[in-house]
Specification:
This protein is an alpha/beta fold and about 500 residues long. It is globular and about 65 Å long. It has 15 helices and eleven strands. Helix content is about 40%, strand content about 10%. It has two domains: about 375 residues, Amidase signature (AS) domain (Amidase signature (AS) enzymes), CATH 3.90.1300; about 80 residues, no CATH class. Helix 4 packs across helix 7, helix 8 crosses helix 15 and helix 9 packs across helix 12.
Length: about 500
C-alpha cells in the first residue's frame, strides 16, 4: 500500500471513513516516518506518540460505532511550539520555558482535533517567533528538507519542514511578519496567513498581539483549505476578543474557473535590489499560468510599502517587550538559582533564560516605549500603518488579489545571513500584509535552476476574502502543475519512501 506521504488530507479522511485503513494505522505510519526522517530534518521539539495513538483510537471507535467522522478524521497534524496542548510542553523554543507543561489547549489546536485530526507533536521555531530561519531556537536547528545545508525559513520553520519532508500531512504555524509564508516558500509547501481575526489566537503565546495570526501549512491548496474549514468551525471564539465569525466554506469554490478575475502586480517590485532572477522567473511563470486561465493582470501600487519594515520593527518589538515581561522566573519559566534578592533573581533569570535575538528585540522594545522616545517613533509607526492599510484598500478597488514575491531569494545556507538587519530585510515582501491585517498565501511555482530549491509566489487579498485568495492560489497551482514545473503534493525527494508505509 502507499506511503502516508502520498496521500492528501482528503484521501486520508476518506480512506478511514471507507475502512480502507484505520486511523491507528495512519498514526503508526506517521510516527514511523518521523522516526526514520527526523534525524535529517529535525522539525520536531516533541513527538507526542501517546496522544496521537489515543486520538486515532477514538477515531476508530467512532467509526466502529457508526458515528459521523470529522472532515480531518485521522489526518496527522503538528503544531508550532507556541501553541498550547495539554499533554505536551510549550517551550516557544526557549530555555525560558524549557520545562513548561501546558495546562490548557489553544482554540486553534482544539478545533483541529475536534475535526478529527491526529496530534503528533510540537514543531521547532525561532525562539518566541523572533527570526526568519529557525536558527534562534534554543534547542537545535531545523534543516530544509530540499537541502539540509540550508535553512527552512522561520519562524515557523519546523512546521513547514515537517510537511515538506512528509512527516505530517498538515501543520499549524503563526505569522507575525511572514513566518508562515516565507518558510512555506523556502520548503516548497503551501502556507496561508489568514486575515487578522479569522483564526482564534487564544492559547498561542503572543509575540506582537496586533500582528500575530495562526494559519495552516499543507502540500496542496486543498489541504490548506480543509484545515481552514476546521479552524473557523464553531464560529467566533469568545476567548479571543479579535476573533470574528466566518461562515465560509474554503473548499467550495476552489475548482471554480478563475476566468474574469483580476490579479494585481507591482511593477516597481520587479526591479527591487536583491530580488533574484529565479524569483522573477517564478513570478513570470505564475503570471502566465493565470493568464492562460483567463485572469486579467492589472498594475497596482502600494506607495508606502517601503516603510513597512521600519514600522514593523517599531510596533513588533514594542508589543514583544510588553508580552514577554511576564517571563520573570517567579510564577513560571527559568528561575536563576542562588539569588539573594528578587530583583537579582528576575534580572538573571531573564538574562540566562532568553537567547540573543529574544533579548535584542525586548531591549529595542523597551527603548521604543521609553519616555521621550515613544512619541518620536511609536506614533509615526502607527500612522504609517494607517497609510499602508489605506494603500491596500485602494489597490483592491481594481483587483481581487495582488501577486508579489515571498522572499527576495530561495533558502540560504546556514551561516550565510548572520547580520540581524539583513535577516530582517528578507521579510520585505511579507511584512506589509501583517501591518494591514490582510490575508496572504505562498504557493510553490517551481524549482531554482542549479540548486533545485523551491520557488514560490505570494498572493495577498482583501480582509476576510481568504476563500477567494485560495481560489486564486488554486488557479496558480493548477496552471503550474500543467507545466510539470512543480507537482502539487510534492515531498522533498530525499525523504520519499523512507518509512511511513501503510500496511
Amino acid at each position: 500500500m502507499a506511503n502516508i506521504d502520498q496521500l492528501s488530507a482528503r484521501q486520508i479522511a476518506a480512506g478511514i471513513a471507507a475502512g480502507d485503513f484505520s486511523a491507528t494505522e495512519v498514526a503508526r505510519a506517521t510516527l514511523d516516518a518521523i522516526d526514520v526522517r527526523e534525524d535529517g530534518v529535525q522539525a520536531f521539539l516533541q513527538v507526542s506518540a501517546d496522544l496521537a495513538l489515543e486520538a486515532a483510537a477514538k477515531t476508530d471507535a467512532r467509526r466502529a460505532a457508526g458515528e459521523e467522522l470529522g472532515p480531518l478524521a485521522g489526518v496527522p497534524v503538528a503544531f508550532k511550539d507556541n501553541m498550547h496542548l495539554i499533554g505536551t510542553r510549550t517551550t516557544c523554543a526557549s530555555r525560558m520555558l524549557e520545562n513548561y507543561e501546558s495546562t490548557f489547549t489553544a482554540t486553534c489546536v482544539q478545533r483541529m482535533i475536534c475535526a478529527g485530526a491526529t496530534p503528533v507533536g510540537k514543531t521547532n521555531m525561532d525562539e518566541f517567533a523572533f527570526g526568519s530561519s529557525t536558527e534562534s531556537s534554543a534547542f537545535h536547528r531545523t534543516n530544509n528538507p530540499w537541502d539540509t545545508s540550508r535553512v527552512p525559513g522561520g519562524s515557523s520553520g519546523g512546521s513547514a519542514a515537517a510537511v515538506a519532508a512528509g512527516e505530517v500531512t498538515l501543520s499549524l504555524g503563526s505569522d507575525t511578519g511572514g513566518s508562515i509564508r516565507q518558510p512555506a516558500s523556502f520548503c516548497g509547501v503551501v502556507g496561508l496567513k489568514p486575515t487578522y481575526g479569522a483564526v482564534s489566537r487564544y492559547g498561542v503565546v503572543a509575540f506582537g498581539s496586533s500582528l500575530d495570526q495562526v494559519g495552516p501549512f499543507g502540500r496542496s491548496v486543498e489541504d490548506v483549505a480543509l484545515a481552514m474549514n476546521a479552524l473557523v468551525a464553531g464560529g467566533r471564539d469568545t476567548l479571543d476578543s479579535t476573533s470574528q465569525e466566518l461562515p465560509v466554506d474554503f473548499v467550495a469554490q476552489l475548482e471554480d474557473s478563475a476566468e474574469g478575475m483580476r490579479v494585481g502586480i507591482i511593477p516597481a517590485l520587479m526591479e527591487h535590489e536583491g530580488l533574484s532572477a529565479e524569483v522573477r522567473a517564478g513570478l513570470g511563470r505564475a503570471r502566465a499560468a493565470l493568464e492562460d486561465q483567463g485572469v486579467q493582470i492589472v498594475e497596482v501600487d502600494l506607495p508606502n510599502m517601503a516603510s513597512a519594515i521600519a514600522a514593523y520593527y517599531v510596533i513588533g518589538p514594542s508589543e514583544a517587550f510588553s508580552n514577554l515581561a511576564r517571563f520573570d522566573g517567579v510564577r513560571f519559566g527559568y528561575q536563576e538559582p542562588g539569588c539573594a534578592t528578587l530583583a537579582e533573581q528576575t534580572a538573571l533569570s531573564r538574562a540566562h533564560g532568553f537567547g540573543a535575538e529574544a533579548k535584542r528585540r525586548q531591549m529595542l522594545g523597551a527603548y521604543l516605549l521609553a519616555a521621550g522616545v515613544y512619541d518620536k517613533y511609536y506614533y509615526p509607526a502607527q500612522q504609517v500603518r494607517t497609510l499602508i492599510t489605506q494603500d491596500y484598500r485602494n489597490a483592491y478597488q481594481s483587483c481581487d488579489a495582488i501577486m508579489l514575491p515571498c522572499a527576495p531569494t530561495t533558502a540560504w545556507r546556514f551561516g550565510e545571513v548572520s547580520d540581524p538587519t539583513q535577516m530582517y530585510a528578507s521579510d520585505l515582501f511579507t511584512i506589509s500584509n501583517n501591518i494591514a491585517g490582510n490575508g496572504g498565501v505562498s504557493v510553490p511555482v517551481g524549482r531554482e535552476e542549479g540548486t533545485g530549491m523551491p520557488l514560490a509566489v505570494q498572493l495577498q487579498g482583501p480582509a476576510f476574502a481568504d476563500h477567494t485568495l485560495l481560489r486564486v492560489a488554486r488557479a496558480v497551482e493548477r496552471g503550474i502543475a500543467g507545466t510539470d514545473a512543480f507537482v502539487p503534493g510534492t515531498v522533498a525527494p530525499a525523504f520519499v519512501g523512507k518509512g511511513g508505509e501503510l500496511a
